[in-house]
Design the sequence.
């Protein structure tokens, strides 16, 4: 049964187990066999020496059988500021040699940044070296859609768009800005941007074969207009409007978050809001639903499969022989982090019961058989979720929370119920270590 509790300003959330920091272990503890069922218990050789016990050395710790999926915004950072509990959490997660004690990946729905840039930013904030391959951006699973990597794709978003798409494997992309430059008469909302003279129509622009929606763009009206133009013209926005093809060109999108939390006291529009606009316009104009070939970022199962694979690879690189059986996903957004972790947990149970083959046709990534048994959701109160924050998803008494999820993910209150609610990520780590019998 999921445990729910309210966030409190200080102390531990009720209903969660937040043990006190234990005293340093003594040699006598090790002689007696350590501290109970501690999975990471270190073995110590001792022998009598002049009536005293001497510690000779440590065997390596038992390998972890669990890993963490940590959200970034609202869990580790708020805007450009680190959340102090995140620094504390990493003191627990890292051993004396500066290495992680368990596999950790950072799963963010951000996408307008490079993977190595995010890793550098996190390293500076957390005081711990984060490797780029520990960072999963919302669009990272687009690497798996190799059937589109050679196609000419229109890309929408901001930041290092071309570099990002190249890193994902796309070889031939056109940005919305490049398309606007090629067809200046398409972008008409801003009067200042309208061409003073009518440019000659051009026919040398190769047709666009698909659309990548990486993250929220700036100047939404431009992106909305030009993406619509591409979809309605089957990739030839310079031509007159014929009958809009349906199904339309393939669209891959990442980051469905309606809202996200930055420095402002109230949540900000996320890419989910942009997608909502695009879907609404498309349906209104054509009478048909906008369809996605792939939707990724949390809460998509695809993203969790991708994260699970990186966790497994990390454990293998560290030489941890025991399979990773449990995942703990820590996040601040009930709709993306909690819903996603619970959906993935549900998927893991289905796979265990029915096998993965039946699920392959749904666009899910067929990966190697997984040892993962469960994925628990842990909700923190340092970001979007807060009972006292305007726009929070905490319902008033007797009311259903508003559904902030994407159109293609059904409203399921049960999936938005966290396995645990704690104040912050440090409490989340303490909770998991306690559950797993690890020293804090
Ligand atoms: Mg977040």
Sequence:
């Amino acid at each position: 049964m999921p445990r729910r509790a309210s966030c409190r300003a200080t102390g531990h959330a009720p209903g969660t187990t937040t043990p006190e920091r234990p005293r340093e272990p003594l040699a006598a503890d090790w002689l007696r066999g350590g501290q109970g069922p501690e999975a990471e218990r270190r073995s110590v050789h001792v022998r009598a020496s002049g009536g005293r016990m001497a510690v000779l050395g440590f065997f390596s710790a038992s390998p972890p059988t669990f890993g963490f999926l940590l959200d970034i915004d609202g869990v580790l950072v708020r805007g450009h500021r680190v959340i102090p509990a995140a620094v504390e959490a990493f003191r627990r997660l890292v051993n004396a040699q500066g290495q992680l004690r368990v596999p950790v990946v950072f799963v963010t729905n951000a996408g307008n940044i490079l993977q190595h840039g995010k890793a550098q930013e996190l390293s500076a904030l957390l005081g711990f070296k984060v490797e780029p391959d520990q960072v999963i951006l919302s669009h990272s699973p687009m690497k798996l859609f190799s059937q589109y990597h050679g196609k000419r794709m229109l890309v929408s978003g901001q930041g290092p768009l071309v570099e990002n798409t190249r890193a994902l494997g796309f070889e031939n992309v056109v940005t919305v800005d490049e398309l606007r430059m090629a067809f200046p008469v398409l972008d008409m909302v801003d009067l200042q941007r309208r061409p003073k003279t009518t440019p000659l129509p051009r026919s040398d622009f190769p047709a666009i074969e698909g659309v990548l929606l990486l993250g929220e763009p700036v100047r939404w009206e431009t992106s909305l207009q030009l993406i619509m133009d591409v979809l309605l013209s089957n990739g030839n926005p310079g031509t007159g409007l014929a009958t809009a093809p349906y199904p339309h060109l393939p669209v891959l999108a990442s980051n469905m978050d309606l809202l996200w939390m930055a420095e402002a006291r109230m949540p900000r529009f996320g890419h989910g809001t942009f997608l909502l606009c695009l879907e609404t316009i498309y349906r209104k104009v054509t009478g048909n639903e906008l369809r996605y070939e792939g939707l990724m970022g949390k809460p998509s199962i695809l993203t969790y499969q991708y994260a699970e694979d990186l966790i497994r690879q990390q454990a293998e690189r560290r030489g941890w022989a025991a399979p990773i059986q449990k995942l703990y996903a820590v996040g601040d957004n009930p709709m993306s982090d909690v819903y996603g972790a619970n959906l993935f947990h549900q998927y893991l149970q289905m796979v265990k019961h029915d096998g993965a083959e039946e699920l392959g046709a749904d666009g899910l990534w067929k990966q190697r058989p997984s040892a993962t048994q469960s994925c628990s959701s842990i909700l923190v109160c340092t970001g979007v979720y807060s009972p006292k924050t305007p726009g929070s998803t905490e319902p008033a008494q007797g009311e259903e929370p508003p559904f902030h999820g994407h159109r293609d993910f059904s409203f399921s209150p049960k999936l938005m119920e966290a396995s645990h609610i704690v104040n912050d990520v440090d409490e989340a780590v303490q909770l998991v270590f306690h559950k797993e019998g690890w020293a804090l």
Q: What stands out?
A: Residues 71, 73-75, 331-333, 383 surround magnesium ion (CB under 6 Å). The radius of gyration is 25 Å.
